[in-house]
Amino acid sequence: MMKQAPDFTLNNQNGEAVSLSDFRGNYVVLYFYPKDMTPGCTTQACNFRDDYPTYEGLDAVILGVSADDETRHTKFIAKHDLPFSLLADTEHKVCEQYGVWVLKKMFGKEYYGIERSTFLIDKEGNIVKEWRKVKVKDHNEEVKAALAELNA
């Protein structure tokens, strides 16, 4: 059931090109979120931040992806002291590769946006677990538990 995670290259908050394949040999927690500076996305990022040492101890790298640009990512990271890279998918090409760019509805309006999703990728670059339509509460605990299982 494992499938290869689509490789990609996106710029991080510093304008540096980051490829998924750069992290072979580590687990990768690749999470897609709708927008910097919004309440749910801030909570999610801060949960990952607060447990960052645990992730490092489990040999995992965290990468956040949204359609925000590098400048906005830089502000978000600075405001919340985030220790991991946020990648700018302004053309939502990677979101489409991962199937998280979807038709959404809010207040009766339909629009395309990112469905909050997380992919756990193993050291060989395979997707070993995915969470779709993530609810922020408790999600961080689920991801850590899945990683701990892989490390067992």
What does this structure look like?
This protein has 152 residues and is of the alpha+beta class. The protein has a single domain (8-151), classed as Glutaredoxin (3-Layer(aba) Sandwich), CATH 3.40.30.10. The protein has five helices and ten strands; from the N terminus they run ββββααβαβαββββα. The chain has helices at 39-50, 52-57, 70-80, 93-97, 139-151; strands spanning 3-4, 9-12, 17-19, 27-32, 60-66, 85-88, 101-106, 109-114, 117-121, 126-131. The chain has an eight-stranded mixed β-sheet. A two-stranded antiparallel ribbon has the order 7-8. The longest helix has 13 residues, at 139-151. The radius of gyration is 14 Å and the shape is globular. 32% of the residues are buried. The model has no long low-confidence stretch (mean pLDDT 96). Monomer. One of its GO terms (biological process) is cellular response to oxidative stress. It is an enzyme of class 1 (oxidoreductase).
Span from first to last CA? 20 Å
CATH architecture descriptor: 3-Layer(aba) Sandwich
Radius of gyration over alpha carbons?
A: 14 Å
Spatial strand order of the main sheet = 1-10-9-4-5-6-2-3
State the total count of DSSP E strands: 10
Oligomer: single chain
The number of helical runs is 5
What is the CATH top level name?
A: Alpha Beta
Task: Tell me the name of the CATH homologous superfamily.
Answer: Glutaredoxin
The structural domain count equals 1
Strand content: 25-35%
Task: Give the mean pLDDT.
Answer: 96
User: Largest sheet, if any?
Assistant: 8 strands, mixed
Indicate the low-confidence ranges by residue numbers: none
Instruction: Output the CATH topology.
Output: Glutaredoxin
GO molecular function, one term: thioredoxin peroxidase activity
GO cellular component, one term: cytoplasm
GO biological process, one term: cellular response to oxidative stress
EC number: 1.11.1.24
